[in-house]
Design a protein that fits this description.
The protein has about 150 residues and is an alpha/beta fold. About 30% of the residues lie in helices and about 25% in strands. Strands 1, 2, 3, 4, 5 and 6 form a 6-stranded parallel β-sheet that branches. The longest helix is centred in the N-terminal third of the chain and has 15 residues. The structure holds flavin mononucleotide.
Length: about 150
Amino acid sequence: MAKVALLVGTTLGGSEYVADEMAAQLAELTHQTEVFIEPNIDELADFPVWILVCSTHGAGDLPDNIVPFHKQLMIEMPDLNHIKFALCAIGDSSYDTFCQGPEKITSLLLQNGSNAIVDKIQIDVQRDPIPEEPALAWLLQWQHLI
Ligand SMILES: Cc1cc2nc3c(=O)[nH]c(=O)nc-3n(C[C@H](O)[C@H](O)[C@H](O)COP(=O)(O)O)c2cc1C
């Protein structure tokens, strides 16, 4: 059993719903999960696994709710050697900046010593209007690694 933090970046609420569904799937495996809408590094100290479930807004920008977390990572540059992460990016391929928002966070996670557990998934809402379906199938493929 592991403590898994789901970090949500959302404007319209879709990514939060996906994170809730992923948390439920992990809870069935007896993992302890918590969904963070306004994540803060200090609150995440106990969680060795972070799953970022994040859409993109503006032109390749992060949703407003997760911008403070991005700023905190940039300013504090915490040692994240002990953290493993996974990225579930949700976007719309009609934008040139498809799924670019959360890349701003994952590049800082990597710079600060964290490692990806698995290749990211980029869910295109043009093709997958119900993003929780590919998200849960993706999680099923690698959840044994947690
Ligand atoms: C104003 C606006 C700007 C957007 N910009 C982008 C973008 O730059 N890149 C992208 O991949 N998707 C973009 N999208 C699509 C959203 O990421 C997509 O609709 C997503 O499902 C929203 O998820 P959420 O409900 O968690 O916010 C944009 C959507 C809106 C409404």
